[in-house]
Amino acid sequence: MTIDEQHMRRALDLARAGVGLVSPNPAVGAVVVDVSGREVGAGTHQYEAVKHAEVLALEQAGAHARAATLYLNLEPCSHQGRTPPCADAVIAAGIGRVVCSMEDPNPRVSGQGFARLRAAGIKVEVGLFGTEARKLNESFAKYIRLGKPLVTLKSAMTLDGKIADASKPGTQPGSATPPSEGARSGYHWITGEVARAHVQQLRHRNDAILAGVGTVIADDPLLTDRSGLPRRRKLLRVILDSYLRISLAARVVQTADRDVLILCSTADDQARQALESRGIRVLPISATADGRPDFAAIMQRLGEMEITSLLIEGGALVNGAALASGEVDKVFLYYAPKILGEGAVPFIAGEGLRGKTPCVQRFELHRFGEDFAVEGYLRDPYSGQA
Would you say the C-alpha torsion 143, 232, 225, 317 has a positive or negative sign? Predict the structure, then answer.
């Protein structure tokens, strides 16, 4: 590993430390290395701390920043936002060289920070660990371009594509992937402990989680982030419930603390008021012509709430409707070396995908104990292209 790679690896690690603490901003880490090769400053951006990573690193470096190299995973901003332009701070500090992974995906400012640095005589090199950096901030890229969250469809299933045995407690056609909370006695997990622990990491990376009311009725999940990692705001729990059938005794209702959003198409006033009295936000949302949830409208509404990333943990019907809508950007599908056979609940149900064949691109395989997972994209979060 080269010296540049070592320092950029450090900057990426600092950026990852901000996951859960930066939304709706990007995750950025910065390292200042002086002319002798010594690290003299480091910073991680956190939304509540306001200052950006490179400014924190430069402040820590002080006079040692002059003629030093700045490593960071994302182009310094060139516009006035909550803070002055970071590119100006880099120039004022006397940095001699900037090594950066990628341009800012914001189409209004992309490349302008680098242009300002080069105009000031600073050597700029772009692209080191670019693929890794792009993946780290893919939700920001989608949000800043389209004003909608990056949508990941997650499920766990057997090798024959079944997400639950309908004969087991806590399952029904269209209900969730195994009830993550283990709410029902006698439930047989599909995936093992290692895979289930990783699900919590996925939840931590996202601003919101979405499930259908069928899942809530059948499995009584909490839908919370139990990774134990810090986050700036609670995971928003979104429930699709067209007719407000959710029980007031459901655990997601009982534990609501301004972090539950229920989307409905027809709202009974009494049911709505009962939910709202428990701190739950109830919003009407349109349906498509065939009665499915209008996922495009849902994503637009979530984007307006500064939700940059959404994890769908639905059952077969929600999975089918989400994929049919074209709003899913990527999938994370866990597989256990088991076969449930005929009669078990399939990964997808409904008529929405008839005639359509979503294709997963750029996929990776991950191993979790005895289980494995496929992570891949239905479209590029940066270009929007399949």
Answer: negative
- C-alpha pair distances (Å), 247 with each of 80, 180, 241: 47, 19, 11
* Model confidence, pTM: 0.92
Q: Is 362 helix (H, G, I), strand (E, B) or coil?
A: strand
Pairing of strands 281-284, 330-336: unpaired
pLDDT reading at 168 higher than 80: no
Q: Are 246 and 239 in contact (CB under 8 A)?
A: yes
Assign residue 256 a region: left if phi > 0, alpha if psi is -120 to 50, beta otherwise? beta
Catalytic residue numbers, as ranges:
54
The pLDDT tens digits of the residues spanning 371-386 come to 999 999 999 999 888 7
51: tokens are 């200052």
Q: Measure CA of the first residue to CA of the last residue in the chain; give whole Å.
A: 34
Rounded Cα–Cα distance for residues 83 and 45 (Å): 12
Query: Is-contact 72 28, C-beta < 8 A?
Result: yes
- How far apart CA 89 and CA 171 sit, in angstroms, is 56
Statement: residue 181 has pLDDT above 60: no
> pLDDT by residue (tens digit) across 191-230?
999 999 999 999 999 999 999 999 999 889 999 999 999 9
Give burial (CB, 10 Å; 0-12/13-18/19+) of 192.
middle
Is residue 332 a contact partner of residue 154, using CB atoms and an 8 Å limit? yes
Residue 204 in tokens: 């931590």
Q: Which are the contacts of 160, defined by CB distance < 8 A and separation ≥ 6?
A: 339, 340, 341, 344
* b/e burial code for range 272-287 (CB count within 10 A of at least 16 → b): beebeeeebbbeebee
Position 79 scores a pLDDT of 80
Residue 290 pLDDT > 80? no
For 211, list phi and psi in degrees, rounded to 5.
Answer: -145, 160
Residues 6+ apart with CB under 8 A from 222: 180, 181, 251, 252, 255
Positive or negative, the Cα torsion across 126, 131, 133, 134? positive
**Residue 251 near residue 183 (C-beta atoms within 8 A):** yes
7 vs 363: CA distance, rounded Å: 28
278-287 long-range CB contacts below 8 Å, 24 or more apart? 278/248, 278/253, 280/253, 280/256, 282/244, 287/242
